[in-house]
Amino acid sequence: MSDEKMISQILRPDEHFYWTVTGSTRDLKYQPLTWLIVIALVVGFIPMARNGFFESWCWLVVAAVSLWPLMYCKRIFHSYTLTDKRLIIISGIVTKHVDEIELFRVVDSTVHQSLIDLWVNLGSVRVTSEDQTGTVRMVKVPDPNRIRETLREAYNAARNAKGTLIMESVNGPIRR
Q1: Annotated domain spans of the chain
Q2: DSSP secondary structure string, 146-167?
């Protein structure tokens, strides 16, 4: 079952849908490091063509190229959906696992972007909550600052609707 079909079954009629972020292998083409690795692979095969064998550094280039897509597996096989009441996380390749965070339980969210991520407007959004899910990292999502801002507005609105107060202390947040 596709994530879109699963999301349509999970959403309640009283929920307001904001966005869904899903990963795709197409996103790899926007990663400059992917192009650098492809170029390095091509340059790595030049000595093989001349000498008829692989030099040791050629094997390192081949290993880097073959492992690079594995770094995107978490992004490719996860989808995140934000409604006005919860953040829904669907993960899995063969089997699907659905987890959700009630927005009034979200404590904080942050964005991290590397230099390469800044160039292509990708980043990681970390959501910290006080339920069993704990901390969730949305890895290599497009336009992470917009996603975080929408998420922040949604969890503040959910707190206000529930009447949840979060008081900061030296040891961490206290719920009342």
Answers
A1: 3-9+17-22+80-163, 28-70
A2: HHHHHHHHHHHHHHHHHT--EE
Tokens, residue 47: 């000595």
Beta bridge partners of 153: none
Convert the pLDDT of each residue in 68-87 to its tens digit.
666 666 667 888 999 999 99
| Distance between start and end Cα atoms, the chain | 40
Asked if 112 contacts 126 with a C-beta cutoff of 8 angstroms, the reply is yes
Q: Which CATH class is domain 3-9+17-22+80-163?
A: mainly beta
Q: Looking up tokens 């972007």, which residue turns up?
A: 113
Report helix, strand or coil for 108. Answer: strand
Q: CA 7, CA 5: separation in Å to the nearest integer?
A: 5
Q: Indicate the pTM of the whole model.
A: 0.70
